[in-house]
Amino acid sequence: MREEPVMIFDGDCGFCTTSVRFAERVFGVRARVTPWQFADLTALGTTRERAEREVLWVERGRVYGGAQAVARLLIAAGPPWILAGLVLRIPPFRWVARGAYRLVAKNRHRLPGGTPACSLPAAPR
User: Fold this and answer.
1) What is the SS3 assignment for 47?
2) Is the pTM of this model over 0.85?
3) pLDDT computed for residue 119 by the predictor
4) Which of 10, 24, 113, 115 could make an S-S bridge to 16, C-beta 3.0–4.6 Å?
């Protein structure tokens, strides 16, 4: 039996939660979706520090983060999204996606659905 991919996000961040719900509705996420706060990160092969920093996609023992996690989500969603996911994996699109992801992640508290808590490190939340 093939193991289902896992998508890990920051459940304390309003923008992240809104984005994941959007992805579930529009792309039909084909993965177990869980906030990092409730995930066994060690068993999934990642760390709290990484999960605090970026969305993660765990599949077949590999962990993809940030823009590459989004690319994997799109690939798993199937047509017509698969093409966008494949494009995000190749340079120079991969580089642009990485920069865009970092910009959004850094400013997520200012975006729709975001709250001041989105900009805080996990410990003070």
Assistant:
1) coil
2) yes
3) 60
4) 10
Sequence-ordered list of residues with C-beta below 8 angstroms from that of 36, at least 6 positions apart, any chain = 8, 9, 10, 11, 48, 51, 52, 56
> Coil, helix or strand for 89?
coil
Predicted pLDDT at 125: 46
Q: Do 101 and 72 touch, CB atoms closer than 8 A? A: no
In whole angstroms, give the CA distance from residue 44 to residue 99.
26
Phi then psi dihedrals of residue 5, to 5 deg: -65, 160
Reported as a single tens digit per residue, the pLDDT across 21-60 is 999 999 988 899 999 999 999 999 999 999 999 999 999 9
What is the secondary structure of 45-81 as a DSSP string?
Answer: T--HHHHHHS-EEEETTEEEETHHHHHHHHHHH-TTH
Please list the residues that pair with 57 across neighbouring strands: 7, 64
Assigned token pair, 96: 């642009």
Amino acid at 22: F
Instruction: Report which of 56, 63, 64, 66 is spatially closest to residue 96, judged by C-alpha positions.
Output: 66
Confidence at residue 118, expressed as pLDDT on a 0 to 100 scale: 63
Nearest C-alpha neighbor of 57 from the set 31, 96, 28, 19: 31
Instruction: Name beta bridge partners: 27.
Output: none
